[in-house]
Every structure is written in structure tokens, then in C-alpha cells.
């Protein structure tokens, strides 16, 4: 969770760190609908023209997906993908939220997935 999140709005960040140029990349962020969850947008630190971006409701979650367009690459480095959303008033438990990253570099596929640990109050 981004530290600028508040009692009505939140941002969840997925940071991708890569040592080789990526020729394929899909980042998916799933925000569980804990009440009043509605997208207010998303962004990434890479150029917008390099990615197709989709937000949709699916099976009780708000799903953000960034997919690298054919012929584009992601250079080595650290890259942030962020989903922004409104939610019901009060603190939001993000422990049901998940992310997945699928990539390919030098012909070698890689995948990682995880969730957002609950932050102690």
C-alpha cells in the first residue's frame, strides 16, 4: 500500500526489478472488493505507449493489468505499476489483494506472484 493512501482512497504498488531487458511483461494487480472499491486510475513509471492497460471488475475484485506491447522492451531497473481506487470509509484490509508478474528476457520466462501482508495498526 502506498503511504499516501487514506480513509477513502488507496494506491497499491507493484515494483518490478529486473537485471535484463524484458521482451515480454504482464503485471496484474487484484484488489479484493472490501466495500465501495472503485477504480480511480492507474499508472506506471514506464512510458504509457509501451503498455496496454485494462481495469475491470472480476469475481469480487478490481483487476488492473498492464501488458507490454509487441516490439517494446523494458530496460533493466526498477519499475512501479500502481492501481488507484476509492474504498469504503475507514482503514482497508489489503491482505486479500494479490499480484502476479509474468515476464521474458533473453528467451527465458519468469513468473512471480504474491499478496499484500496486513500492516500492523
What's the structural blueprint in terms of helices and strands?
Elements: E1 9-18, E2 24-32, E3 38-44, E4 51-58, E5 61-68, E6 77-86, E7 98-105, E8 108-115
Antiparallel strand pairs: 1-6, 2-5, 2-7, 3-6, 4-5, 7-8
Region (Disordered): 87-121
Structure notes:
This protein is mainly beta and 121 residues long. The chain has a single domain (9-114), classed as Immunoglobulin-like, CATH 2.60.40.740. It contains no helices and 8 strands. It has strands at residues 9-18, 24-32, 38-44, 51-58, 61-68, 77-86, 98-105, 108-115. The chain has a 5-stranded antiparallel β-sheet, with no helix packed on it. It is elongated and about 45 Å long. The two termini are 13 Å apart. Residues 87-121 are annotated as: Disordered.
Taking pLDDT < 50 over at least 5 consecutive residues as the criterion, the unreliable ranges are none
Quaternary arrangement of the chains shown? single chain
Helix content: under 10%
Largest sheet: 5 strands, antiparallel
Q: What is the count of helical runs?
A: 0
Rg computed from alpha carbons, rounded to a whole number of angstroms: 15 Å
- What's the shape? elongated
CATH topology: Immunoglobulin-like
The overall pLDDT, averaged over residues, is 90
Question: Roughly how many Å apart are the termini?
Answer: 13 Å
Name the CATH class. Mainly Beta
Query: Approximately how much beta-strand content do the residues carry?
Result: over 45%
The total number of structural domains is 1
The string of secondary-structure elements, in order, is EEEEEEEE
